[in-house]
Amino acid sequence: MTSTPHPVTPPVTPAHDAVVLAGGAARRLGGADKPGLAVGGRPLLDRVLAACDRAATTVVVGGRRATARPVRWAREEPPGGGPLAALDAGLRRLGEDSERVVVVSADLPFLTGATVGALLDALGTSGREAALLVDADGREQPLVAVYRTEPVRRELALLATEYGTLAGLPLRLLPEQLETVRVADASSAAFDCDTWEDLAAARARIREHGNVLEEWITAVREELGVDLDVDIELLLDLARDAAHGVARPAAPLTTFLVGYAAAGGGREAVAETARKAVELARRWEEESGPLADGGGSR
Question: For the stretch 195-223, what's the b/e string if a residue is b when 16 or more beta carbons lie within 10 angstroms of its beta carbon?
Fold first, then answer.
């Protein structure tokens, strides 16, 4: 089937579901529990689920475990039957009215909601049956993709009829039967953790200077269950002004009090509360300078 290039455009989030494939033997990891391996203090599976948090229904195909948000569970038949059998099991847990489905593996530490949105947008604007992410080497990633649900169900049924089973069939057979659109990977979303070296590289990357604060704030938000878009630069400026204008210990205390005061109010409330605290810190700093003529004590 044909496959045409498509530029990444601003992401949108039309109604969709998600199927996360979290099975597999992880042979290159010595049989380790790959979805449970942590990057940035969060299991790989939870990182992927966070990227798919706008899905109406999310199905995880694999062994049941604690997750950061509620999901439905499925298992392929037979166990270890491969990605097509797993995908089929996941789709069976979705409603008949499902129109679009995000399909991803559970070992993608850098998958984001923006990438999912770009795939959904590409699927919608192209009119094709599938939108596949393409990595830096030009390889299509059928497990970082969005599909129209009905064509996928149709082709899985046809493949099962043709081969007698989906177990053991290569994943490439599915996109070969669909009209696809390709989306360039601009953020290493297709990077997967297949080996211990991959896992070490992922853990090192999130600690790089340009990534560490965003990664840390995201991890804290997920851990505390805080659904708030944090303006990191605003809070850093506030902490700096409190430290310089008052005293160093004032920085963490002030940012805590700003968060407490703005609790439940969203990004705008945080911004307004931070503005007031910044102005107060600057007034304190001004008072630490020399007094104007005539302002001294008499």
Answer: eeebbeebbebbeeeeeeeebebbbeebe
Q: What are phi and psi of 187, to 5 degrees?
A: -140, 25
CA distances from 262 to 165, 246, 247, 277, 283 (A): 56, 22, 23, 12, 21
Are 10 and 114 in contact by the 8 Å Cβ rule? The answer is: no
The overall pTM is greater than 0.90:
no
Report the range of poorest mean pLDDT among 70-79, 82-91, 143-152, 257-266.
257-266
Burial class of residue 12, CB neighbours in 10 A (0-12, 13-18, 19+): exposed
pLDDT in tens, 89-123: 999 999 999 999 999 999 999 999 999 999 999 99
Contact 120, 131 (CB under 8 A): yes
Alpha-helical segments (H) within the chain: 44-51, 83-91, 113-126, 149-163, 196-205, 212-224, 232-245, 250-261, 266-287
